[in-house]
Amino acid sequence: MPIRVSCVILAAALAASGQSLRDLAKSKGVYFGAAGAVLFLNEGDYPTVLAREFNQLEPENDTKFGPIHPAPETYAWQRADALVEFGAKHGMRMRGHTLVWHNQNPAWLTKGSFTPVQLNGILESHIAAVMRHFRGKMIGWDVVNEAFNDDGTMRSTIWYDKPGIGLQGTGYIEQAFKWARAADPDAKLFYNDYNNEAICAKSDAMYAMVKDFKARGVPIDGVGLQMHLTLKPNLDTYEANIERFEKLGMIVEITELDVRVPVDASGKADPADLVKQAEIYERVVRGCLKFSACKAIQVWGVTDKHSWIPGVFKGTGEALIFDKAYQPKPAYTAVRKAFEAAK
Q1: Distance CA 256, CA 304 (A)
Q2: Would you say 190 and 142 are in contact if contact means Cβ atoms under 8 Å apart?
Q3: Which of 3, 113, 121, 153 could bridge 44 with an S-S bond, Cβ 3.0-4.6 Å?
Q4: How far apart are CA 328 and CA 193, in angstroms?
Q5: Would you say 118 and 166 are in contact if contact means Cβ atoms under 8 Å apart?
Q6: 5 burial class (0-12, 13-18, 19+ CB within 10 angstroms)?
Q7: Is 85 a catalytic residue?
Q8: What is the pLDDT of residue 135?
Q9: Which is the catalytic residue, given 53, 256, 282, 318?
Q10: Is 0.85 topped by the overall pTM?
Q11: Distance in angstroms (rounded) separating the CA atoms of residues 178 and 293
């Protein structure tokens, strides 16, 4: 059977190398995680590879507003609960994603014509319900996701100005963090975004917000650098960016790492591009491991078979460290190399 063959090949690769990535990460004092989906836990190698290689698990979609809060008085806990149960069974740290975002909100919310006062109450109740349900099970949350445009201005969203919850500037972000702290005082609270790995207009806006929050006692523990990268990433100031957030006392986590490459009509990448991809993975991991503030590196999915990339970025794919048959790619070896080289 193909599944048995792939498991044997992977097991042989691990036996030759000695340790899984989760074990290597643990030996360096960090977590190596993946975004997961309960739909695939009964699929062949998926649970085997997930449990063997990763010691952190985050629901890819199942704790976002729409999936978990499909009707005004209804919460759908089953899928997220199943992931939490899987994580607990396999000694994995659980991370929540995401409480406040402009995407994947339910129709009852986006088409409800609510006033700012009403939206304020809805969001407070949502954050409280979700965080209290998972209290003691999630080590932290992406409280607010992708609130800034690439030029550093505020993104126009239902929570900010369409119509918003009645607060100006970064006020709605601040309020969400305050509600989150009240709901679960022990959870680590993160602001998460993309195109923020380098020092740039967006990461500058994040930095200014975090610095302001820290000065005024607004509860925030960390920042997430998503790192959905291409073969030409802007990493020249990546380490300096981590360093400046570290100096503010922030935890820094790589939260959604993948590196998309051009693919042909059958979805196959040029082997040379996979070598370049591996070099980028290695550089990202090595950079994180230089800083005590960088506590986790998480890839956005387990296998290319289920990656979101081909559906969103046409003509690209093969973005993860395991291929569609769950075989380790050059990127897998590169991540291993980075962990082994770290002091």
Answers
A1: 14
A2: yes
A3: 3
A4: 28
A5: no
A6: exposed
A7: no
A8: 98
A9: 256
A10: yes
A11: 23
